[in-house]
Design brief:
Length: 145
């Protein structure tokens, strides 16, 4: 089955860097689990709110997050399962595998100029989840190659 983004996800994705748009647009077509874009660009006020709630380690005031750039250098996703948004770890892990594989393929093919970092493997060592001090499974951000 091939999925596609709905209008709300497309609007959120349009606030992102072109490399993220390419990656997410390609990944949605090959993911075995449907997903949407929860957030692209984020205001400094929204960033501070998430920091105060403990959902981010960056406050947007003393340090800008990748979501705070315009266009955004980060996107957050959610799984779309049984007609509703889900942040279930298993679903997000499967989707992350697809997104990361797609990002590497597009980078290797010269379509994108950035690599991608996932909030379930911040240090990029391949040891997912268990060795991370802060889990942000819906989060994907562009990094310099």
């Amino acid at each position: 089955m091939s999925y596609q983004f709905g209008n709300t996800s497309l609007e959120r994705l349009e606030t992102c860097d072109q490399d993220l748009i390419y990656i997410m647009d390609y990944a949605i077509r090959y993911s075995p689990i449907d997903f949407g874009i929860a957030e692209g660009h984020r205001s400094k006020e929204r960033q501070k709110e998430l920091f105060d709630e403990g959902k981010s380690r960056i406050d947007g005031v003393t340090k800008m997050g990748k979501h705070n750039f315009n266009p955004s250098l980060a996107a957050d996703i959610y799984a779309w399962v049984n007609g509703k948004a889900s942040w279930d770890r298993d679903h997000l892990n499967v989707i992350a595998g697809v997104i990361i594989a797609v990002s590497e393929m597009l980078f290797d093919d010269g379509v994108t100029t950035h690599r991608l970092r996932w909030g379930g493997n911040w240090d990029g060592d391949g040891e997912v989840i268990s060795d991370q001090s802060f889990m942000d499974l819906p989060h994907f951000e562009l990094i310099e190659a």
